Amino acid sequence: MTEQAGEVHGGGTWGSREAAAEWRRGAAARLQAFGPATQMMLDLVQVAEGSRVLDVGAGAGDSAVAAAQRAGSAGRVLATDVSASMLEVAAEVARKAGLSNVDTRVIDAQRLDLAPDSFDAAVSRNCLMLIPDYRQALTGIRRVLKPGGRFAAIVFSAPDRCPYLSLPHAIVFRMGRFTLPAPERFGEFRLGAPGVLQDAFATAGFREISVRTVPARRRFPSLAEAMQYARGPLPLRELMARLSRAEQEQAWAEIERALAQFVGPQGYDSPCELLIGVGTK
């Protein structure tokens, strides 16, 4: 099932086996938060029986598996990521789902070494904004799509609409006296400002571009479980590593107090706004 191009260097914490293990454990939380948006993304690019689909930044394979279920035995999904460890999880998830139409390849989204005009559709969930040169990635994605093929990407909206992500980051930046970057340069929220995602698609040459706002929720049975997920090997973990041990302990305590405002009788529950951009080659 797995076809590996040579090892791609980089990926930071994301490329570690620890990250892959955390992502495997967090599957249920991601399904709850991002499952409906994922299905909408697949609808927008018209994945159906027989489709050949590219998943860019596939991670642990959530969206690749969903696409493969739609593509059926006559279709094919190629899940790509910079992390071989993540793709091992994706391949395992596909096997357990009884799918034989998912391939994986370690590849940098900024250098898509794939044949032009070879995919009916392409998708990317919660990845595009983290690619250093996302403009180059978009140009490459458009190149490998067949004429008329569609690409859709899920990204996070503005920081104040995703407190589960933005509050911890803000606390760590303040604690470390780091310079808080402008929103367009801040990791998860780089493509969240009005017009930015649409402009990125247009610059890459896509047409029939639209951006949809999708409300979601981040839910966990308890604050403790919300904190456990937040402590996983995410971009926040890499920021934390720049603090002293004492500062890290203080930061985690402040994060827990900040997130406690979203705890009610049913556990942790905070809003999370997503954007889905779609364009046609």
What features would you describe in this structure?
The protein is an alpha/beta fold and 281 residues long. The chain contains ten helices and eight strands. The chain has helices at residues 17-25, 27-44, 62-71, 84-96, 134-144, 163-175, 196-203, 223-230, 235-240, 245-259; strands at 52-56, 76-81, 102-106, 119-125, 145-156, 207-220, 263-264, 267-280. Strands 1, 2, 3, 4, 5, 6, 7 and 8 form an eight-stranded mixed sheet that branches. Helix 1 runs parallel beside helix 4 and helix 2 packs across helix 3 (62-71). 43% of the residues are buried.
Distance between the termini: 28 Å
The SSE order reads: HHEHEHEEHEHHEHHHEE
The stretches of 5 or more residues where confidence is low (pLDDT under 50) are 1-11
Query: What is the share of helical residues?
Result: 25-40%
Backbone CA Rg: 18 Å
Shape assignment:
globular
Specify the biggest β-sheet: 8 strands, mixed
Number of strands: 8
- Count of separate DSSP helical elements: 10
Structural class: alpha/beta
